[in-house]
Amino acid sequence: MNNHDEPVERKFSVPPPREFKFSPVIPRINTDNARKTGNKNKKYGPDFTYLMKTRESTSSSTSIILPAVKKKDYFNVEANIQNEFGVCGWILTILSYLLIFFTLPISACMCIKVVQEYERAVIFRLGRLMPGGAKGPGIFFIVPCIDTYRKVDLRVLSFEVPPQEILSKDSVTVAVDAVVYFRISNATISVTNVEDAARSTKLLAQTTLRNILGTKTLAEMLSDREAISHQMQTTLDEATEPWGVKVERVEVKDVRLPVQLQRAMAAEAEAAREARAKVIVAEGEQKASRALKEAAEVIAESPSALQLRYLQTLNSISAEKNSTIIFPFPIDLLSAFLQRQQPKVDNFQTQMQKMAATSS
Asked: What residue intervals traverse the membrane (predicted)?
């Protein structure tokens, strides 16, 4: 057998895998210019700064430099606009301008648009957002063949949150509805970052209402509506900031309870009112009896006061229109008569007590 027919054992050395360490990635950032120029510390606009992070490189690890950006610039869409339309894009643009030029002044009616004071127009050219932000108010120019635009209303809008069935913290099922007032704070973001800002805000308001009221008791829902509205407004405002929406105000309209619970609460409230009424009546009688006792003590000390009170009573009786005839009787004679009759009354009471003792 020849040496060529013998199997040859070959050994391959496989290098160890390389590990990549990433710095935090911020999406939607254009780094093409940095790759072309090689300048990693180049600034893109007044707000974007690319931060260099150095790491120790070894035989088995490699450092990758990724851009870092401020949180407030995360939603800056205009900073990421690329004006490169490509060859076809420039050809279509030139042809569109030539068509406008040769069809003047008819094409002017299609190129000139007007937006109101409370509106803004977001323009797209060949699907790309035009630099300069939203246009308006007033007149702006578009190329009909390659430009499209959307009008955005910047006025305060409102919508009603449908009644939501919510289980409170103390296991009570209630139906709560609310009303939300909002406005578009950034027309460009509201068009590019979300399909329908108003509808998305409405759906988010429904879930936020359920989440917040699910942590409250029934008493807190009925008494702390202002705090609940403020908490909901803050939560919605933070969540809708990436959509260019500013939530101005949230109001809880109505908290509807089940019929059985309404009856139970009404019975409880009625019982509490009756108890308070009895306490008030008892306190009034107590105060009246004390005042009557003090008046009796004062009248007993002065016979003339008793006589005056007697005359006032006669006067009040005679003032009424009735058929009663009153004969004034001297109070001195009446007191003497009562003193003479007092022994007889005492004797009668003693006899009644003896009869009761013998019968028992």
From this structure: 90-115
For position 196, which CATH number holds? 3.30.479.30
Give the pairing of strands 128-129 and 61-63: unpaired
Inter-helix orientation angle 331-359/303-319, to 10°: 90
Residues 6 or more apart whose CB falls under 8 angstroms from that of 55 comprise: 21, 61, 63
Write 11-18 long-range contacts (CB < 8 A, 24+): 16/59, 16/60, 17/60, 18/60, 18/61, 18/62
Whole-prediction pTM? 0.55
Domain that holds residue 202: 157-261
List pLDDT tens digits, range 122-136: 999 888 888 888 888
- Residue 271 has φ and ψ, to the nearest 5°, of -65, -40
100 and 65 inside one domain: no
pLDDT, one tens digit per residue, over 166-214 is 888 888 888 999 999 999 999 999 999 998 999 999 999 999 999 999 8
Are 65 and 52 a contacting pair, CB within 8 Å?
yes
Separation between Cα atoms, residue 148 and residue 129, nearest integer Å: 10
Q: Which residue, 314, 166, 182, is CA-closest to 239? A: 182
Contact residues for 212 (Cβ-Cβ < 8 A; gap 6+): 228, 231, 232, 235
In a shared domain, residues 61 and 99: no
